[in-house]
Amino acid sequence: MISKKMLLWMIVSSFAAVLCLSCGKTERDGQNLIVSTEATFPPYEFRSGDKIVGVDIDIMQKVAERLGKKLVVEDTSFNSVITHVLTGKADAAASGITVTEDRSMKVAFSEPYVEACQLILIPKGSDVTGAEMLKNKRIGVQEGTTAYDYLRENVITDKTSSLISQFPNPSLAVEAMLAGKVDVVVCDQDPARMLYANNPDELILLTEPLTKESYAIAVGKDNPSLLNTINEVIREMKSNGELAESFRKNEALAKSMTSETPVSK
Ligand code: GLN
Q: Residues near 204 by Cβ (< 8 Å), separated by ≥ 6?
């Protein structure tokens, strides 16, 4: 079962996100670099105390420093991060975003900074051994993500679409699975690894990669100079080891929180 601490943390984080949404009218006065994210996706973005931290945040902090601006991170639903860029509410979206054709029609993507894939999480005792067994299973995914795209393209038929449940974040999907409401969760590999690390006695993480994806930062198509700076920073952080260090630091932080405070929201 998910611990009481985890439940409490999920409630507090959701409440904080709602508060942030309702007060989220940050002034775009040119002094701020406003970045939209969904802060329940360790190690890319997650809450540590009252701060949002993670690999995406480290990248964007460096971009802000280079531009002489203050980084302002807006926490919202994953479905909204690209919309915030399109409506001018944010300068960029940094949220473990997979580059897809659909999204590329709307926003400009930076160079990729990591390769990723979707993985399957199941409860101990499940009969699922791989992707070929997903048909006719009740599957939980985070809404608006490439996990859902994968299912739509490869698994769901008109008859089985009702078997898919979408959740605001992967840990709520896992919560539903442990409560017996879905059979399987499909989720990006790094958060899946973190969720597994959080519940090794109850979960199994299958290692078969279902997809091949690249994460990148999204900006408006009308903002090539911001895109250039982001690309410069990504290239630099890749070549001088800062990006690898950011992964090490944030994974360790997210895991250390697992023992005291849950990493999932
Ligand atoms: N990489 C996935 C996507 O882009 C999920 C991202 C997320 O949930 N933060 O759809």
A: 121, 122, 123, 124, 126, 196
Rounded CA gap, 75 and 36, in Å? 6
Chain segment 55-83, per-residue pLDDT in tens: 999 999 999 999 999 999 999 999 999 99
183 CB near ligand 1 (under 6 Å): no
DSSP state of 160: T
User: Structure tokens of 22?
Assistant: 């309702």
pLDDT at residue number 258: 63
pLDDT tier for residue 160 given thresholds of 50, 70 and 90: confident
pTM of the shown model: 0.87
Residue 132's nearest CA partner among 140, 123, 120 is: 120
CA–centroid distance, 163 to ligand 1, in Å, is: 21
Atom of ligand 1 nearest to the CA of 145: 10
DSSP state of 246: H
